[in-house]
Amino acid sequence: xxxxxxxxxxxxxxxxxxxxxxxxxxxxxxxxxxxxxxxxxxxxxxxxxxxxxxxxxxxxxxxxxxxxxxxxxxxxxxxxxxxxxxxxxxxxxxxxxxxxxxxxxxxxxxxxxxxxxxxxxxxxxxxxxxxxxxxxxxxxxxxxxxxxxxxxxxxxxxxxxxxxxxxxxxxxxxxxxxxxxxxxxxx
Length: 187
Hints:
Oligomer: single chain
Order of helices and strands: HHEHHEHEHEH
Number of strands: 4
Shape: globular
Distance between the termini: 48 Å
Strand order of the largest sheet: 1-2-4-3
Number of helices: 7
Helix content: 40-55%
Largest sheet: 4 strands, antiparallel
């Protein structure tokens, strides 16, 4: 698969087949992450693989956020309910962590983004589907307490499995709309 074909073909998969992902394929995803660029070569990513009841419990934790009737739930977070369903269907849930370091926070998060993109593209090449999940942020403390991640910070998660859907490409901005003109001091 050519790189641009993978970039154009990658989709967020929310429905997965009831089929296990082979350990060898998971190892390929971690190898892709390991080789990704990182600020000052810090390689800040740490991964925890959950399957079966472990990922089911994370899905339950995410759903519990909606059961507190006193909590005002922002509109943008309501997708978490659907994300919990995708976690259940996926063969694997990979929790992505980093160490706390205020000086390196931005660089580490950007580096983790690069690692996740490498993983998503490699997954596509291996015939797997992925869902890059940020909805874990609403229940971060509860998830970390459940899995015992120590002092690490949960950055995001990646659901991995064999896709049971082929979504269309989502709308994207034109390249011209992405570009900013220099308006600074011209002296």
